[in-house]
Automatic annotation (TrEMBL):
Residues 123-181 form a coiled coil. PANTHER family: MULTIDRUG RESISTANCE PROTEIN MDTA (PTHR30469), SLR1207 PROTEIN (PTHR30469:SF33). Residues 75-230 form the Multidrug resistance protein MdtA-like barrel-sandwich hybrid domain. Keywords: Coiled coil, Membrane, Transmembrane, Transmembrane helix, Transport. It comes from Ancylobacter pratisalsi. This is Efflux RND transporter periplasmic adaptor subunit.
Length: 396
């Protein structure tokens, strides 16, 4: 029977132990390789995030409040009639340019001519009576003087003297009454003459006939209301009435510069300034709106009644200043504004001081210079920033 030496048994046991350890080394090596691959694919070589950026540039900025407006002539007159009667003639047509005191329309004057003729006849009658009364007073004065003289000489009676004096006073009173009647009739005549004059309607101002509401041959009744025949407007100056929301009205003051365009001429700008802010609002669908009035010259008559305009109230303006997209600015507590600036070492948060701002751009007063690149967002589908591993897709 063969027996191994002690050294042989020792060598055999060592070989068996080595055979048992090599799977552990393989497993450790595999784990290390897997961890390195995971780090390589998720961290070390993750693609840099793709940012949406914009450069700070010099430019012009203005802040505005917008509103929808309607137009009306600044000065216009509704020409009516002060007397009743049949409208015989209307001389101008719609669109005609008239001057002050031009004849516009005529009402049948027959009734008023008759009244004037009657007043004049009554006046002539009263004046004739006055002349007769004057002659009678002269005679009564002579009789009174004679009666008083006879009484002094004791050749006449007291009764005769008193009767003569009373007759003279009666004649004087009659003359006073006739003078009062003459004054009254004269006043009636003046009124009827005025009414006769009102049967011809004249232009009260220079302007354009923009509408005619009455028709020739119709009967106008001035006793119930003042009938409107036509409207004259001065189209050389138009008033734009803009309806401004209550949230924007505190920003607008008298004299605020304004520009606007119309639906028919969107590329042309008219300019003016705020003339009046009406204190009483108009409520439309629970929205509080205030009327703001702007006067604008209209020499070429391109602006017409009831045109619609989009009005821009200029609240502020700056030219040649650094501008940054408004969407790049982050507003923090205490009114602090920050932006993310893209540098060679990566994005950096920077505090800035802003000025005028609108929906697209904002003025930068401090913190940025022209040429700086600011981050406005992350591109769609861009990779997550470095250092943040992607989550594996969810299965099932």
């Amino acid at each position: 029977m063969l027996q191994k030496s002690e050294s042989g048994w020792t060598a055999s046991a060592s070989k068996r132990r080595r055979r048992r350890r090599w799977p552990v080394f393989v497993l450790l090596a595999a784990l290390a390789a897997g961890g390195g691959y995971y780090y390589y694919t998720t961290t070390a070589h993750a693609p840099a995030p793709q940012y949406q950026t914009a450069q700070v540039e010099l430019g012009d900025i203005e802040t505005t409040v917008t509103a929808i407006a309607k137009m009306q002539p600044k000065n216009y007159v509704d020409v009516g009639t002060q007397v009743s009667g049949q409208l015989r003639t209307i001389h101008p047509d719609v669109g005609a340019v008239v001057k002050k005191d031009d004849l516009l329309a005529e009402i049948d004057p027959t009734v008023y001519q008759t009244r004037v003729a009657g007043d004049r006849a009554s006046l002539d009658n009263l004046r004739a009576q006055l002349a007769q009364a004057d002659a009678q007073l002269t005679l009564d004065k002579l009789r009174n003087e004679r009666a008083q003289d006879l009484l002094v000489r004791q050749s006449g009676s007291r009764d005769a003297a008193d009767a003569a004096e009373a007759t003279m006073r009666i004649s004087t009173a009659k003359i006073d009454a006739l003078k009062a009647q003459i004054a009254q009739t004269q006043a009636t005549l003046d009124g009827d003459l005025a009414n006769l004059g009102y049967t011809k309607i004249y232009a009260p101002m220079d302007g354009t006939v923009v509408s005619i509401t009455a028709r020739e041959g119709s009967t106008l009744n001035a006793n119930q209301s003042a009938p409107i025949v036509l409207r004259i407007a001065d189209l050389q100056t138009m008033t734009v009435t803009a309806q401004v929301a209550e949230g924007d009205i505190p920003k607008i003051t008298l004299g605020t510069p304004v520009y606007f365009s119309t639906l028919g001429l969107p590329d042309r700008r008219w300019r003016g300034e705020v003339r009046q802010i009406e204190p009483t609002p108009t409520i439309v669908n629970d929205v509080v709106l205030y009327n703001v009035l702007i006067d604008v010259p209209n020499e070429d008559l391109m602006l017409m009644t009831d045109m619609t305009a989009q009005v821009f109230f200029r609240l502020g303006e700056a030219k040649g200043v650094p501008l940054v997209p408004t969407q790049a600015i982050r507003r923090g507590r205490g009114g602090i504004s920050t932006v993310r600036v893209l540098t060679a070492t990566g994005p950096q948060e920077r505090t800035i001081k802003t000025g005028l701002s609108n929906r697209t751009v904002t003025q930068v007063i401090e913190g940025l210079a022209p040429g700086d690149t600011v981050i406005t967002g992350v591109a769609a589908g861009a990779a997550a920033p470095a250092g943040r591993p992607r989550m594996p897709p969810r299965l099932g």
